[in-house]
């Protein structure tokens, strides 16, 4: 009783929780491993057999229950491995990680070696298997047809096992013969620890194995060393170092302090060496953006080194999704997970990447570690300041003697591993040296030869290889210690460079955190509805080059969790990573590093590299704590018997309980009891702990489809439950994404509904749409029967399209037969099927898109812009025969209820307008249709003159196109114009019927279906209206009537349009002044938006409620325009008369006396008016006034021209006394308002200023 309580009490502070031995169970014998994919084509020595956990000590630890299946699977991911004396049998080391469902991690460190098989039963079983194998395959030299035709992933993996060992071919068909060969089988020694002390565990296990292979018995029974590390070696305290004893040498480890970066013992230098700096930065960026990352290598330890290296560098963020750095062969179905993941897959020697069929690749980052090669997803934003960042990392690596170059071949890596400078000897040399060092007789012989002046050259050379660094090291450190120190210093410096980037980028993040809940309970309850971070304001505060990356990153789960932790730190203890990060930001503020560089994209280098390395070195030089030495245990005499080459069966009774008398475990147990008492007291005061934990887990897992799936239980029921969780997670993700897109897009209505954010930037919108594309790809990849191409969605669309074309063909050939067989399925969608296939065909014709993933994304964007995404996908999935053929039963697309909800969420996106196709594919050719609608009652439908049209948009214009005579409709192909802004319409005034009254012009984008209306309502012709032969019309997007219902909730204001001449209600002077104020305010707001988000300035200058319209109303107030029996007088007539007066006065010398600036202003007004009058364009009097206002606004002259017009005597003839233009106070106020536009660079569209050279 006391023993077990000591075990549990001490466990949280123990260095190691379990010691495990895995290998062959001689009682059950050889069991084939079905889960790993059996293949009887292979020789028996290459087949996969089940390993077992032979023993683990202690039996159980209360807060880290022993998971036998997972540990066995990860200690021996390929199962048991057999060898003969002819095969290489070097020991191997690898590590693994078990992530529990709550996200907590346990580390395993495994030393695998080969032990002679002594069981006659197993040797004879292997002999029998070989005889059967030879009988089947010996007669036929050629491979059987069945094996060559097999193409599944399992058979590929297992058939390539043949190439796993170079000796497999050398033994020929004879294989294993029990009378001639010695059989060896793999055995694994494993330490399971709460923290990743990789180097210490590796050295301990290596020494333990050396004790077994040495010619003399170790100083103490092995139980003493195992008992010591399990119960008597504590975890080092934060900021302290610890020394404990292995079998032969002491082992040192150290733990970072509370203010330092958390512990990371995996060698980052090796990860950089394996991938190269640039590749590693790219993979790191993919990890930050939560893509699917698959690592691929023959070596388990390489998989672990790269995975742990990358996740370590994420500080202060943490990977929130599926994390399986070593994916056992039996768990390949995990690759089907439709969620972000980071997994490691073991490759077989000689495997070709092209043969590796992965369930989904649309958003996959594939990392071939052994060949230093990566495949990145499409549409991939670069990490900010990537070039300077890579440069700084390369300099750190070079300072430690490591090359930063990428693309080294595997040979160079082998040389690196065998290089004495890295403290690594080749495997055989190290084994020889270990053997010699562990042998007392040889040591005495060596001492004797030295005294007589004879040297044993081979041993001396080996020693020199190990000790070359030790002699240089301070304080007489051994080569291994020197190497460990170098690794630790390199690790911390590389990590500091990464941490420094985040400290710079997120120095002001706290200012944008929205703290809206009064207490933790209400925050957790309403977590899903809460808006926690002001994303738009944060992005607007960032340098332009950072935006593509940051806009994606702030949408990730790891960033959301980071912000959640920040909010929860108000009510509970700060999460450790956040505490360290906040301290760094505070320190930076203290030194005022950030303030001058706000919004600057200049690169800031890390300033604490030397300091961080010194901290590590000081800790390792001065050991803070030495653990109790291993000692004899209370064991029965004769136990712990030594037999060379065989790991003995350890005594469970002494290893299952810890010491009850050592002060350290007693102290821990007392502290634990104190904690328990405190917890019981607080439970009554706070919300029930279980309920709180449930809330916490739900809050933290929000947005995550599934936390870590279990590795151990592989029953069909558990696999089905895992898939069900995936389905639920995908639906939840879809709901949140569509809601986020709607709230962001609907603007003011969203604010009225209680959401905080009103505006959305185009960049943010593009990020959300890209995220939706990724989600749809993951949904379509889930549960695929057979993968075809990189995009599952595009593959499905092509299947559908081919089927529809076949059915149409059949219908054309034999309509009678078709009606009888397919009537029910076809009739309802005959109309709609055109649209889905129509969109597919358009995408296929786009030569700019080269990949299936690109085509699928273009299809999604186009369907979303046409407001047909939900309808199209519903149509696609209505072909149930096709869906059943393509998808397994558990797939998301075959879960009827979830599928309906998913389509409903997508339908909600029809409430807003997207231009996500038009704005992204800017270089494609698009067919446009133009229709001119005249007012037939008052004029001729046709005109005898030669009409022309020019269509302009945000991306360019079509150029002037002649309209064929007597035709009111035409189509033309043109490079994407973007959102349409203006149409220039005119004619050459030829013929008898040259006057033309046009109601409006309609322009339709034939791909997206967007139709724009350009209202006119004016005459084009000499001697009618204002004598204009051409007009610039401003467009408005026409909403299709079918969308009225779905869009009813959206009150987004329509785009502006051209002002028509009819103004029935004359506005009051107050209304006119208010209109001018509003227009100028709108233009100022326009310039405060990021440049790419501004839209059309032409609309604000010349549209219906624009600057020109408002100033026209100002000039029309009190204007004596209507004369009996005389023609209409226009505002432009007043301007011309005023300019004529000024020119006359100038000639007579009246203006000579005025101040110089006024004279200059007078000249500028005359020059502009004359230039407008002398243009070759026939734009009419209202068109000329519009042009004068636009040019005056552009060149900041309007406020200077107004006083000249007011002072001119002509005003008395043409304006009433009550006119606004004759009220000095009002004019001065107008000048003040117009001067606010001087701060902004106004550029005019080419269609407005064509033919004017000023």
From TrEMBL:
Region of interest called Disordered, as start-end residue ranges on this chain: 137-178, 658-682
Q: Which residues form the PLAT domain?
A: 926-1034
Tell me a GO cellular component: membrane
Cited InterPro entries:
cDENN_dom, dDENN_dom, DEN5A/B, DENN_C, PLAT/LH2_dom, PLAT/LH2_dom_sf, PLAT_RAB6IP1, Run_dom
Q: Which UniProt keywords apply?
A: Guanine-nucleotide releasing factor, Membrane, Repeat
Gene3D superfamilies to which the protein is assigned, alphabetical: 1.20.58.900, 3.30.450.200, 3.40.50.11500, PLAT/LH2 domain
The record's subcellular location field reads:
Membrane
Which residues fall in a compositionally biased region of kind Low complexity?
Answer: 139-170
User: UDENN domain location, by residue?
Assistant: 33-573
Q: Which Pfam families match?
A: dDENN, DENN, PLAT, RUN, uDENN
Q: What is this protein called?
A: DENN domain-containing protein 5B-like
**Organism expressing this protein natively:** Sphaeramia orbicularis
Record lineage: Eukaryota, Metazoa, Chordata, Craniata, Vertebrata
